[in-house]
Amino acid sequence: MTQRLxxxxxxxxxxxxxKQIAQSLNYEVVLATTLAQVEEILSGDTNFFAATVxxxxxxxxxxxxxxxxxSHGIQSVVMTGKMDDETRQKILAQPVIDYIPKENSQAFLxxxxxxxxxxxxxxNAILVVDDSSSARNHIVELLKRRNFTVFTxxxxxxxxxxxxxxxxxxxxxxxxxxxxxxGIVLTNEIRKKYSREQLAVVGISGASNGIHSARFIKNGAxxxxxxxxxxxxxxxxxxxxxxxxxxxxxxxxxxNTDYLTDLSxxxxxxxxxxxxxxxxxxxxxxxxxxxxxxxxxxxxxxxxGHDVGDQVLKVLALYMRxxxxxxxxxxxxxxxxxxxxxxxxxxxLYNKLDDxxxxxxxxxxxxxxxxxxxxxxxxxxFDSKEELSKQMNEADNALFLAxxxxxxxxxxxxxxxxx
Length: 419
Known about the structure:
By secondary structure, the protein is α/β, with parallel strands linked by helices. The protein has three domains: 3-119, Rossmann fold (3-Layer(aba) Sandwich), CATH 3.40.50; 124-255, Response regulator (Rossmann fold), CATH 3.40.50.2300; 266-412, Reverse transcriptase/Diguanylate cyclase domain (Alpha-Beta Plaits, 2-Layer Sandwich). It has helices spanning 12-24, 35-44, 64-70, 85-92, 105-120, 133-145, 156-165, 183-193, 211-218, 231-256, 266-283, 297-304, 306-323, 346-362, 388-404; strands spanning 3-8, 27-32, 50-54, 76-80, 98-101, 125-129, 149-153, 169-175, 200-205, 223-226, 287-294, 328-333, 336-342, 365-367, 370-372, 376-382, 410-412. β16, α15 (388-404) and β17 (410-412) form a beta-alpha-beta unit. It is flat and about 85 Å long.
């Protein structure tokens, strides 16, 4: 569903810029230029995801529109051309997302980031750890204005339990002074299980002793805030750390994913397959390693072009996800793919592979304005105790035999032909 943004702005050029920014983020924009218009719109329609509100309007020169929009439960970013300490305090006394001085083009770049965060922050879970309910609730309130998913804990012991329960948590904000386990010990315990690439830790303390920030950082925290902190500093530190984690995740995804099919790439497949095969062996879980190749794929590229060839690879990857969703699927390179599957027994695994092969053979693949048919050959190794590289060689040899014996078939390594 498209999210709607209420833009309250009496300057037409600025309203146009905000509208363009919002539409680039797929917001549907409704514009109001006066407080009277805002009241009229909201009297019949309050279904807005967020709003940008100009501090001074012709009929509301002193921020009256802010309270009006907030009273309808609409999260708001205040845009202001007037910025002094009194105005700032007046804005921050209200539960706004943020305020942005309309000083230069940077203001609008920052607005775009804020509107983007409001859309995406719900996927970022944060754990707040503090034995003071008032301090904890204050931080929770600030985070919820920014649409973060928030969990809470009263002490370090409880915090470690919450981390176990909720795998989506990306950040822990912890107070220093707590019973049972203080923030420094908690940070140390967190770092025994979670790396900086997995989880950010922000320490907080009201103590005046400056050594606490250094202690937090040296025990594995990423950042530190001294209480009382202002909302601007709080949001800046939290956002920078969350963005850093998300950037790392994107880099790791790019490093481990085939750019064309979005399956695992060769490097990621070998790393994860080694781990899984070891686990399957310990628990005696039936499993198989399969290597597949698209038959006569060079002809597809030669006749229809590489764009069509790429499309065939993408669609094949979709079929792999459909048939082997719980397995480890990868594109090894070119038209060669690999799967590591586990199941009830070898017959069930073989049948899953054969169902996949049969569906590919009868499916139509898009090729520009026409459609083409393809087939695949598969070599498979069952329940091997050998190291992964040797299993891959055995599966490759079986794949070679499948090609030699007519293609569009499965050959089991070390067994007679089986199709």
